[in-house]
Amino acid sequence: MHHKTVSRLPHRADVIMSSNMQSANPPSIDDQTLLMNEVNEAIYEKNEGKLGELLHVAVKLNDKPQFLRIQAHLALYRVQYDALIHVIRSPAENFPFVLHKELHIL
User: Fold this and answer.
1) What pLDDT does 89 receive?
2) Coil, helix or strand at residue 97
3) How much is the pLDDT for 69?
4) Residue 30 · residue 59 · CB < 8 Å
5) What whole-number distance in Å separates Cα of residue 62 and Cα of residue 106?
6) Reported pTM
């Protein structure tokens, strides 16, 4: 009787880990998308320190929308309403409509 050699499928845990790693950091994500995700998380957590660090990243990446968004939230946390109003009154072309709407909600 002849037996065929069958390659084994990867262990289920390996498949899950691989799948999770890909979904957590897919190769197509660029620096600006990563920055936006980090900013969203910092805003959600109301983490002023992290937002301050991300402000420098936004400058380095020349990401004006996220820079203004971070400035607005930092001004809000620091009760600097004049600075907040200044950011809100920035021209809408500096950032997408959704972000402009978010700033006006602040």
Assistant:
1) 80
2) helix
3) 87
4) no
5) 23
6) 0.62
> Measured between alpha carbons, how far is residue 53 from residues 3, 44, 57 in Å?
61, 16, 7
The C-alpha atoms of residue 73 and residue 105 are separated, in whole angstroms, by 11
Segments of the chain with pLDDT less than 50: 6-23, 25-27
Distance CA 58, CA 41 (A): 15
Tell me phi and psi for residue 75, to 5 degrees: -60, -40
Cα(75)–Cα(5) distance, rounded to whole angstroms? Answer: 66
**Whole-angstrom Cα distance, residue 32 to residue 93?**
18
Alpha-carbon separation of residue 81 from 1, 2, 88, 106 (angstroms): 84, 81, 10, 10
For residue 65, give the amino acid letter: P
Q: For 59, how many CA atoms within 13 A lie in the half-sphere containing its CB?
A: 7
CA distance 87 to 100: 10
Count of CB atoms situated within 10 Å of the CB of 85: 12
